[in-house]
UniProtKB/TrEMBL annotation:
<dbReference type="InterPro" id="IPR036291">
    <property type="entry name" value="NAD(P)-bd_dom_sf"/>
</dbReference>
<dbReference type="InterPro" id="IPR006367">
    <property type="entry name" value="Sirohaem_synthase_N"/>
</dbReference>
<dbReference type="GO" id="GO:0004325">
    <property type="term" value="F:ferrochelatase activity"/>
</dbReference>
<keyword id="KW-0520">NAD</keyword>
<dbReference type="Pfam" id="PF13241">
    <property type="entry name" value="NAD_binding_7"/>
</dbReference>
<keyword id="KW-0175">Coiled coil</keyword>
<feature type="coiled-coil region">
    <location>
        <begin position="136"/>
        <end position="163"/>
    </location>
</feature>
<dbReference type="GO" id="GO:0043115">
    <property type="term" value="F:precorrin-2 dehydrogenase activity"/>
</dbReference>
<keyword id="KW-0560">Oxidoreductase</keyword>
<dbReference type="GO" id="GO:0019354">
    <property type="term" value="P:siroheme biosynthetic process"/>
</dbReference>
<dbReference type="InterPro" id="IPR028161">
    <property type="entry name" value="Met8-like"/>
</dbReference>
<protein>
    <recommendedName>
        <fullName>precorrin-2 dehydrogenase</fullName>
        <ecNumber>1.3.1.76</ecNumber>
    </recommendedName>
</protein>
<comment type="pathway">
    <text>Porphyrin-containing compound metabolism; siroheme biosynthesis; sirohydrochlorin from precorrin-2: step 1/1.</text>
</comment>
<keyword id="KW-0627">Porphyrin biosynthesis</keyword>
Length: 163
């Protein structure tokens, strides 16, 4: 399938329910980014990283250590399917499409309603970068360059305001 452009949209997730199926490194990275925008995150996985376990114990995320069930997505606005089981990810994708829930399947860019961007935040500034699911390393390099440039510009602005 030819790569199609995705519209970059910034949305308020603060009151949206997000479900992450999976508890590995990819899920952990995405959850850490999402926590900058919302605390309404439910994680469902049979195994999780220690970092996710700690976030669950702290009450930062709602954590269920068990297999995923269809009912887990009942009130979801957005779902991240980041399990290491492609059949389960495919089933999650199917359920989300049936229910009209935005879904991102970490292992299949063709099954994504949205791409998960590299994010840089400072003050009121939020920048998201994606390579349309094709080259994560390139997107990371671009995000880092943008971050360096913005920190320079915003740092100079802070110095001007102090004078």
């Amino acid at each position: 399938m030819k790569n199609k452009p995705y519209f970059p949209m910034f949305i308020d997730l603060s009151d949206k329910n997000i479900v992450v199926a999976g508890g590995g490194n990819i899920a952990t990275r995405r959850i850490k980014t999402l926590l900058k925008f919302t605390r309404n995150i439910t994680v469902v996985a049979t195994k999780v990283t220690q970092e996710l376990m700690d976030l669950g114990k702290a009450g930062t995320v709602t954590l269920y250590i068990r297999p995923v069930k269809r009912s887990d997505f009942a009130n979801a606005y957005m779902v991240i399917a980041a399990t290491n089981d492609w059949k389960l990810n495919d089933e999650i994708h199917r359920v989300c499409k049936e229910e009209g829930i935005y879904v991102n399947v970490a292992s299949d860019r063709e099954a994504c309603d949205f791409y998960f961007p590299g994010v840089y935040m400072r003050d009121e500034m939020v920048v998201g970068v994606t390579a349309s699911g094709l080259d994560h390393k390139k997107a990371k390099r671009v995000r880092e360059e943008i971050q360096n440039a913005l920190e320079k510009v915003l740092g100079e602005q802070d110095e001007d305001e102090e004078r």
